[in-house]
Amino acid sequence: EYSDKGWRHVATLAEPWGPNRAFSRPGFEFSYNEQDDEILAIQVAATLGWMRAQTIELTGYHDLPVLQVWIEPLGEALGWLDAEQTTLVIPVRSLDGTRRTALDAAMQSEIAELLAQRWTEAMFVELGVPMYHRWIEPEMAAFLRHTLDPAAPPAPMLDPLVTAFGPELMPTFIESMRDRPIPGAALPAAMR
């Protein structure tokens, strides 16, 4: 602070934005700032919870990893905080600095893409699919993303197969992968 006698040191608040709050939902641990809009945190939790439930219903796979979600007042961009993709950061402010009160369609689409990729990778790692058989991974991520965000393009191979063989194709495919984690064998087995 500056006065007629010059600069004077003044103490600042240790946390001018207030303490963090946290809550849990199946598959997620949420953290947000007290002064952030609690409505945004609740909407994010509802949206992500729906996406998780849809993924489980589509695939029959229940062992999706638990993710941390930070509703971040100082966050600049939506994305993963860490290379392991365990913490998703959702900025409270938009690029022009206005405070968000809800997720817009573009953010929901980006979140759908991030989660579809993360969950697909986690699923195939846990199922023990060898790296040289992971050609199916981008296809599965595209399939999940299109379901979570209908504006996203459909998966070129899996969407037509699910249309032709019905919604039970994907859970049967994933279950077949538990026994033999080779997509080239599990997919035809699921189509019988």
Give keywords:
192 residues, alpha/beta, five-stranded mixed beta sheet, two-stranded antiparallel ribbon, 7 strands, 44% helix, elongated
* Major beta-sheet overview: 5 strands, mixed
Total strands:
7
The gross shape turns out to be elongated
- Count the helices. How many? 6
Q: Into which percentage range does the β-strand content fall? A: 15-25%
Determine the mean pLDDT.
90
Structural class: alpha/beta
Intertermini distance: 76 Å
Spatial order of strands in the largest sheet: 3-4-5-7-6
Helix content: 40-55%
Q: How are helices and strands ordered from N to C?
A: EEEEHEEEHHHHH
Rg from alpha-carbon coordinates: 21 Å
Poorly predicted ranges: none
Describe the structure.
- The structure is a single chain.
- The protein has 192 residues and is an alpha/beta fold.
- 44% of the residues lie in helices and 15% in strands.
- It has six helices and seven strands.
- The chain has a five-stranded mixed sheet with strand order 3-4-5-7-6, covered by helices on one side. The chain has a two-stranded antiparallel ribbon with strand order 1-2.
- A hairpin with a 6-residue loop joins strand 6 and strand 7.
- Helix 5 crosses helix 6.
- The radius of gyration is 21 Å and the shape is elongated.
- The relative contact order is 0.11.
